[in-house]
Design a protein that fits this description.
Elements lengths: L9 E3 L2 E3 L7 E4 L5 E4 L4 E3 L6 E3 L5 H36 L4 H29 L9
Antiparallel strand pairs: 1-2, 3-4, 5-6
């Protein structure tokens, strides 16, 4: 297993946490064949025999891209946690009729916020740098 942030597992609270693998990088050969390999690995085109190395990609740029996408995911999850932290105690401790407001907030999250969030993520992916690799 190849890890982007180091090869040693870390220990937290008596448990060993395995390193997180970096997502694969999609490579399209000049002949039209496509494949994907992790950062730092080499991919050999099965059709023409060219070899493409992802070690040409700057690791800092790749990490920055992963970090921004992870931040988008955390943002969407954090809003859900905040909504739950607000509405669950209100429903349980104050009044069960507040569930109607929770439904309205959920509707707002799903149909107003999430399309906006998806557009931002797609724009970030579209505007992210594309690396031009040269065959070995």
């Amino acid at each position: 297993m190849r890890c982007l942030w180091g090869n040693k597992p870390t220990r937290r609270g008596g448990r060993t946490i395995a390193p997180v693998e970096a997502p694969p990088i999609a490579i399209t050969c000049e002949c039209g064949a496509a494949g994907s390999v992790p950062l730092g690995e080499t991919w050999a085109c099965e059709e023409c025999g060219r070899r493409w190395s992802t070690a040409q990609i700057p690791a800092d740029e790749y990490r920055r891209r992963l970090r921004s996408l992870r931040r988008f995911k955390l943002e969407a999850g954090a809003i859900l946690v905040v909504l739950a932290a607000v509405f669950v105690p209100l429903i349980v401790l104050v009044d069960q009729s507040v569930i109607f407001l929770a439904a309205i907030a959920s509707f707002g999250y799903l149909f107003l916020y999430m399309p906006f969030w998806r557009r931002r993520v797609r724009r970030a992916v579209r505007d992210a740098p594309r690396w031009q690799l040269t065959p070995e």
